[in-house]
Structures are given as structure tokens and as C-alpha cells.
Amino acid sequence: MRLVGASRWYTQLPFILEAALAGLIGALLAVGGLVLTKVLFVDRTLSGPIKAGIIPPVDWGQIALISPIIAGAGVGLAGVAAYVTLRLYVRL
Fold this sequence. Notes:
80% helix, 3 helices
């Protein structure tokens, strides 16, 4: 495509978007694991030490606060990694 006049961004953008989508899916799986861990492990298994004051409680507000950060980091890191990889290994 570069040989017939397409820009570098036009040829690389689909791959960068694919990596960003994969990063978003990974981030959603990570947030799901975080929620599942809170429900199954923190609320059930650690309820005794939390009530005794040994371990601080984890509430839903903290999970809601960290979830967008996880999603942004997943998408950003995957996009940057795809861009750098394409710049290093695709020579046209």
C-alpha cells in the first residue's frame, strides 16, 4: 500500500487499533477478575480479619476508581507497543 501512495498512518492504524482493542479486552478481564476477587475472596474469606480491624476493607468505590486507570493503561500500553513494534520491524 505504501508503494502506491498510502501514508504510513493509513497502513499502520488498523494494527494499532487492533492492539488497543486487545488491550481493552484484557483490561475488562482484569476488572472482572478484580470484582470477582472482591466478592469471593475479600468479602467472604477475609470478613473476619476485616471486622477485627487487622485488614482494611476494600469498598466498591475503590474498585470504581481504579477500573478506568486499568482500562486506560491497558489500551495505552498496547497501542504504544504496537506502534513501536510496527516502526521497528515494518520498513516501507
